[in-house]
Task: inverse folding
């Protein structure tokens, strides 16, 4: 190890600069991760555009090698120095009922609005020891971090897909309660949507429909290689008729929105395309108008969703192991630490629609 840690620090809206930080003092309860690669998420792009968390080290889709680990931390995480791991972004209390279920995203202490909350990729460098994000050579492993071993065969560019795939598993298979014979409709042609396709098939869905916008053409084209029975352009007329035709006029049993749509367009289409008794998993944020009369008539269940559970992360690791060749086919753009701003912009769909995943390799 060198004398200091190099990190790309967000200093304001759309700005980063390389800074050096001292290595943190270690104890028996914590650890230090040598970051191999950190993926760029849409959250990173949004935070970077706003800059309101500055100064901070962004990045939470992290894969790396355990450089140092205290004796108590090694026993708790069941890792040793040299092990390759991914780290969940949540830093939960580890004591509440939600934590006991592996639902760290719901722990009160893990909420970004909680007093003195810690979250990887969203905690400022002014909070000691400062190394809270993946766009750096090393990441501090807080005693309450959640760590998972990475399969030996998984490359770092594959392992950084774990958390986005876990979101797809959580939203589709777990929250959607997909079972054998279900017709599943998924909105969004990005990595989360493609992961939801794989999760739906693994859960027993008989028909999987993937819908995306015209500008998502390159991504939507991946739907059938990933196992979707139908792919539809949501900008073309007759979308609802096409969905009904694909489901023998019944409609979809489970509908998953991975688009973060705030206009209400996806929710409205979902309701019209839903079967009686369907389950709608909506990832869209903001005030989305819902047609309560139609929801009541069709006896629909609406499930807002965010993040992932530990169960979903473990399933995502299994999917990566089983479908490694498929996910390796995705277009990735990896950048050195000095090009972190470029990597974040490449990870923004509006700027780079052809790239499925961008990332930063601090040692490149």
Result:
């Amino acid at each position: 190890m060198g004398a200091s840690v190099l990190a790309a620090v967000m200093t304001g809206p759309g700005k980063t600069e390389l800074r050096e930080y001292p290595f943190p003092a270690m104890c028996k309860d914590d650890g230090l991760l040598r970051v191999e690669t950190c993926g760029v998420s849409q959250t990173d792009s949004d935070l970077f555009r706003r800059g309101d968390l500055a100064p901070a080290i962004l990045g939470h889709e992290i894969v790396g090698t355990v450089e140092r680990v205290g004796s108590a931390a090694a026993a708790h995480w069941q890792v040793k120095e040299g092990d390759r791991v991914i780290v969940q972004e949540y830093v939960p209390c580890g004591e509440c009922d939600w934590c006991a279920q592996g639902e760290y995203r719901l722990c009160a202490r893990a909420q970004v609005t909680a007093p003195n909350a810690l979250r990887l990729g969203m905690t400022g460098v002014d909070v000691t020891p400062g190394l809270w994000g993946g766009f750096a050579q090393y990441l501090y492993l807080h005693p309450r971090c959640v760590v998972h071993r990475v399969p030996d065969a998984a490359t770092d560019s594959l392992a950084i897909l774990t958390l986005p795939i876990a979101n797809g598993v959580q939203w589709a298979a777990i929250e959607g309660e997909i079972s054998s014979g279900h017709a599943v409709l998924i909105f969004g042609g990005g990595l989360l949507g493609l992961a939801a396709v794989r999760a739906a098939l693994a859960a027993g869905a008989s028909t999987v429909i993937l819908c995306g916008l015209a500008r998502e053409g390159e991504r939507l084209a991946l739907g059938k290689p990933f196992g979707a029975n139908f792919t539809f352009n949501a900008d073309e007329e007759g979308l609802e008729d096409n969905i009904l035709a694909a489901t023998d006029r019944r409609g979809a049993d489970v509908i998953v929105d991975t688009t973060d749509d705030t206009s209400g367009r996806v929710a409205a289409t979902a309701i019209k395309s839903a079967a009686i008794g369907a389950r709608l998993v909506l990832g869209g944020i903001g005030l989305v108008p819902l047609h309560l009369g139609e929801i009541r008539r069709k006896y629909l269940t609406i499930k807002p969703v965010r993040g992932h559970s530990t169960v979903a992360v473990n399933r995502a690791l299994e999917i990566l192991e089983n479908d490694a060749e498929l996910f390796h086919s995705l277009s990735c753009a990896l950048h050195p630490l000095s090009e972190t701003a470029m990597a974040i912009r490449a990870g923004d769909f509006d700027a780079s629609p052809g790239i499925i995943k961008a990332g930063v390799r601090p040692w490149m």
In short: The mean pLDDT is 93.
